[in-house]
Design goal:
By secondary structure, the chain is mainly beta. The protein is built from no helices and 20 strands.
Length: 248
């Protein structure tokens, strides 16, 4: 990873492995700040072999220059949670850039591995706006982070196939989705219909992804008896779904 010192800036250290905060996150908050100026498109990338490269476009919609950093991480799921790890298999070029007001900049995403993709490989492109040194009396600057899913898949990879389980755990129920397919599933508007008919909303928008041959777990803060019947409702990549299970 290139050093920003030549540009008069410092990078923020990144742990080797960390849990992912899905979607757009605000890295620094303040009582006064201007609106976000850095915009990124598209919000996801999916490539089918033999395709090995794509791009994103960064736009500065503000009135002052912006510095940004683009990094790619291998994305897996372990113990039911999202995990990111540094990788050299896929790179972003250029990794560091400055955007003048009203200008766009293209960042290329390239898979360098010579071996063919097996099933689907999942990555996250992290785009950080690097905070500028705050001038006295100018208020506080927002630092924005975009987290963009990037998928490389082979032709003919098996589609996602989900099975659900719910088991009692500390603090409530653990809702587990296991994907035995090779391709990912994207879940939104996830809800549980509890015994008695009450609906518990887990996520009104994006609930998360279940990667290929992986498991995703949601913690539900409700104490339910073993054998209690639950109905799971949500929306996947191919439309709404509904299934009924019993708590273990």
């Amino acid at each position: 990873m290139r050093d920003l010192g030549a540009m008069g800036m410092k990078t923020h250290p990144v742990p080797r492995r960390f849990l992912l905060a899905m979607g757009l996150a605000v890295a620094a908050l303040a009582t006064t700040a201007s609106a976000a100026q850095l915009h990124v498109r598209p919000i996801s990338i999916e490539l089918v072999a033999p395709a090995q490269a794509s791009k994103i476009v960064l736009t500065n919609r503000g009135r002052t220059p912006i510095a940004a950093q683009a990094r790619l991480f291998r994305w897996t799921q372990k113990n039911g949670q999202d995990v990111l790890e540094r990788t050299r298999v896929v790179v972003a070029s250029p990794p560091l850039l400055k955007l003048r007001p009203g200008r766009e900049h293209v960042v290329r995403i390239v898979r360098l591995a010579k071996t063919p993709v097996k099933g689907e490989e999942s990555y996250r492109l992290i785009v950080d706006e690097i905070p500028q040194k705050r001038l006295k009396g100018s208020g506080v600057v927002f630092a924005l982070r975009y987290s963009i899913p990037v998928f490389f898949r082979q032709q003919g990879a098996t589609p996602a196939r989900l099975s659900w389980q719910a088991r009692r755990g500390k603090g409530g129920v653990l809702l587990k989705a296991t994907n035995t397919g090779q391709l990912h599933e994207r879940i939104s508007n996830l809800r549980l219909v509890l015994p008695g008919g009450r609906t518990l909303v887990i996520a009104r928008g994006l609930a998360g992804y279940v990667l290929g041959n992986s498991t995703r777990i949601w913690r539900v803060p409700r104490h339910l008896k073993a054998g209690a019947r639950l109905t799971i409702r949500g929306t996947g990549l191919h439309g709404p779904f509904r299934t009924t299970i019993r708590v273990r």
